[in-house]
Amino acid sequence: MKSISTNNATVFFNSEVYTELNNYIKTNKPSKIFILVDTNTHDYCLPKFLERLESGDINIEVMEMPNGEDHKTIDICTGVWEALSEYNADRKSVLINLGGGVVTDLGGFVASTYMRGITYINIPTSLLAMVDASVGGKTGVDLGSLKNQIGIINEGEIVGVDTSFLDTLPQNEMVSGFAEMLKHGLIYDKAYWNTLTHLENLDLSDLDQLIYESIVIKNKVVTSDPKEQGLRKILNFGHTLGHAIESYFLENADKTPLLHGEAVAIGMLLETYLSTKVCGLSTQELEIISEGILKTFSKVEINKNDQKHIIDLLQYDKKNSHGIVKFVLLEAIGQPKTDCIVSDALIAEAFDYYAN
Length: 356
Prior knowledge:
Elements: E1 4-5, E2 10-13, H1 15-28, E3 33-38, H2 39-44, H3 46-52, E4 60-65, H4 74-86, E5 94-99, H5 101-113, E6 119-124, H6 127-133, E7 138-143, E8 146-153, E9 158-161, H7 171-188, H8 190-196, H9 207-224, H10 239-251, H11 260-278, H12 283-294, H13 304-313, E10 327-332, E11 335-340, H14 344-355
Parallel strand pairs: 2-9, 3-4, 3-5, 5-6, 6-9
Antiparallel strand pairs: 1-2, 7-8, 10-11
Helix pairs in contact: 5-6, 6-7, 6-9, 7-8, 7-9, 7-11, 10-11, 10-13, 11-12, 11-14
C-alpha cells in the first residue's frame, strides 16, 4: 500500500515499515534507540520487531510499562522520563513506541516533553492505535479517570502500520478499534460506513484496505486542521458522551471497565439519537446507524444513577468553552455538525432510547 504523508510525518505499511525505519536509522544515526512497550507487547510484539530492526552499533534500551488505560498517568511518564535520564538519552536519541493507544499516547507525550522534545516513532500494534491513536499527533495522559486531560499535539517522525501485529490481539480489542472505523464512516464517508456494516460480503484479506481507508479519512481531517480549531472537531463524534462513560466505568469499583471503543460505540448511539432532535437526522438513518453499531457492540446497562454521574462528567470535555458542553452531531451519514448545544433533558431521552 502507498505511504500516506501527514503534515510532519509519513505513515508506512507492512514490509515498507521496516525498510523505511532502518533507512531512517542509517541516515539520521540517532545517539541511542529507546523502545517503549507494555507488558503485552513486550511478550508478543517486541521479539518480532527486534528481528527486523537494523540498529547497527547503536545501543537499544527497552522500557516496559504496565498495560491498560489505568496506567496512562503522569506517574508512569515520570518513570519513563527517569529511565531516559538514567540511560543518558540526549536530544539526538529516538523513542519508538511499540504498542496500542496507551503506549503511543503516553510515549508521544514523554518524547515531546523530555529535554523539550526528542524524536519519536509510533509502531501501533492494536487496531485502535492503527486507525486512530497513532495518527495526528495527539499525545497525552489521563488526569485521574478524566481522559486525555494532559497532553500536547506533536507528530512523530514515522508511523509504521504492520497489520500482522493484529494476529496477537484479543477479539475484544479488535472490536474496540472497529468503533473508530465506524465513526470515520459516519462523519466522512457514507460508502465506507456501508462497507463496514456489511462485512459479511468481505473476508480477512480486505482488512488491510479498510484500515488504510480509515487512516486516509483521519489524515485528511487532521492535515487540514492540525490544532483542532474547526474541522478536526468532527473526530470527536461519539466521544463527548463516550469519554464520560469510559471515565465513569473506570473510576467505579462496582463497574466493569469498558474499552475505549466499547464506550465510544455507546456514545455514538446516544449522539445519533441527539442528532435527530438537534440536527434533523432522519429517523430512518437513526435506525440504520443503531442497527449497524449493534451488529458488533453489545448493549451495556446504564441506570438512572449512572446517567446523572455521566452527565456531570461532561463538564470536563475538552471541546467545552465558557462552561458550555458542545457536541459533534450528524445532519446525515457523512455530514457532521460541530459545536452543537444539547440540554440535559435531551441527553436523558437519549439514554432512554439506548435502554429500549
